[in-house]
Specification:
Blueprint (H helix, E strand, L loop, with lengths): L16 H12 L18 H16 L8 H21 L11 H20 L3 H23 L3
Helix pairs in contact: 1-5, 2-3, 3-4
Length: 151
């Protein structure tokens, strides 16, 4: 079982200067630019998807590793989010019989799972963001060590 990774900002463990340097590198290693994310794609399904795109990009712009490479995954996440919201609104507070699964409830679960899957790909969880950064820094360190030895 792998341990949960935390960003440097929320780290509670005392870190050495070397560990801090490595954590900073991990977090910076996965960012490649995000200028394409400033405009939502025209293929988003509705205003809810567009609003979610804008909300996430605004948050990502504060401090994030999401980049232009995530454009399609972000769009797919926003579409799943919009469809999920639509289904939840249609279901409302209606109590459904437990004997037969409602097609709307099945769709609600489907889009919830889709949001989780794309959310993980986008790094919407701290663990997924730091896992990506850690792998890149480890690879860079190995390349440096292989080229220059243990200095």
């Amino acid at each position: 079982m792998s341990k949960i990774r935390k960003s440097l900002e929320v780290q509670t463990k005392h870190l050495t200067q070397e560990e801090i340097k490595i954590k900073k590198l991990e977090q910076e290693a996965v960012f490649v630019g995000n200028e394409q994310l400033q405009n939502p794609p025209d293929w988003l399904v509705d205003g809810n998807a567009t609003n979610e795109w804008k909300r996430l990009v605004k948050e990502f712009n504060k401090k994030s590793m999401i980049s232009n490479l995530d454009y399609n995954n972000l769009g797919a996440y926003c579409n799943a989010f919009a469809r999920y919201i639509s289904i939840v609104r249609r279901l409302g507070t209606e109590v459904l019989p437990a004997k037969e699964p409602s097609p709307l409830v099945m769709l609600e679960l489907k889009y919830s799972d889709e949001m989780k899957r794309y959310g993980s790909l986008l790094g919407l969880t701290m663990e997924s963001r730091l896992k990506a950064g850690s792998g890149l820094v480890t690879n860079t360190e190995e390349k440096i060590e292989n080229e220059f030895g243990d200095v």
